Fold this protein.
Amino acid sequence: MSYFTGLDLHSTNTMIGVLDDQKERVFRKRTPNKISVILEHLEPYKNDMVGVVVESTFNWYWLVDGLQEAGYKVHLAHPGAFSEYKGLKHVDDKHSAFFLAKLLLLGILPEGYIFPIKDRHLRDLLRKRLKLVNNRTQYILGFESLVNRNLAVNINANAVKKLYEGDIEEMFEDEHLILSAQANIATMRYFDPKIKEIEKKILATAKLKPEFEILLTAPGIGNILALTISLETGDISRFKEVGNYASYCRCVSSQRLSNKKKKGQNNRKNGNKYLAWAYLEAAHKLRRYCPEAEAFYRRKSLKTHKVVAIKALAHKISRACYYMMKENVAFDINKLFGYPLKVKNRCGSKPDRGLDVEPLAPIGNTATPT
């Protein structure tokens, strides 16, 4: 007899549902979120357990890690890729647990990727850095707005980053404005050492990864973007095709077409928002340092909206990075755009911003990037 287990995980408790290979319900129990208690309930079925399904919720780390350490075959269910039958009159946690087990039994369970513990913690640390940077940016923008409102003066972010609390007293006369502005600067300064400490720690580890070094060969991709792409991607072999990776990076459109007519839209937020951000940033930077990328963007922007044009460039970069990481090859501009340009500054050097880019061949995107 073989057994299949579904775990409906919540913030404080977990519903356990065990099915046998005849789809019979042999065990169900709601337990507190303690790995020792859950393992105790699963122990009688362990030797014949085919797999345990855990839905990818916000707090799955401890449960998946504990089950794997105990020797169970764990499957992380992707909730965005399946839904229960909408015609059901009554659904509860018990039903959901057995539903997960049944998907595994039938071999139709959409699975998510379980990051190795070490890489997962490093990735989460990088996400924490991004959150700190975003918080710091809010205070910088708040200070810029305060100066503009009261002094009618525009001040850019680089100038704000050089300010200290003592500099504020010379800028304003009102004591309340001074206190408000000093609060912005002091908070901004508080984030700086934390951000640098995290960057130093992550870089020391990431430099050992071959994917990180390969990504740095692409113009416009520096340490932070290379860290984000390599850590958020994980094992590149988990993506069977380049299209799967581009979709995961949110670099493809989300729509339903029938007879060339739009019939609706799928979930455009499916995928990794951090990779989506990284490739958009890489696209903006590649335009600065690569005449071929600037020419591609210009042609696209003449045909469609500029937002769509930059997304198209981000899509090309994501495809290129896929092959770079998979085949361990350096960036090649000819494989990305597929035609030469009459330019003095080739991609990789900083071009003259007034340079007119003249294509030698008809415009087209027929080459497969590597």
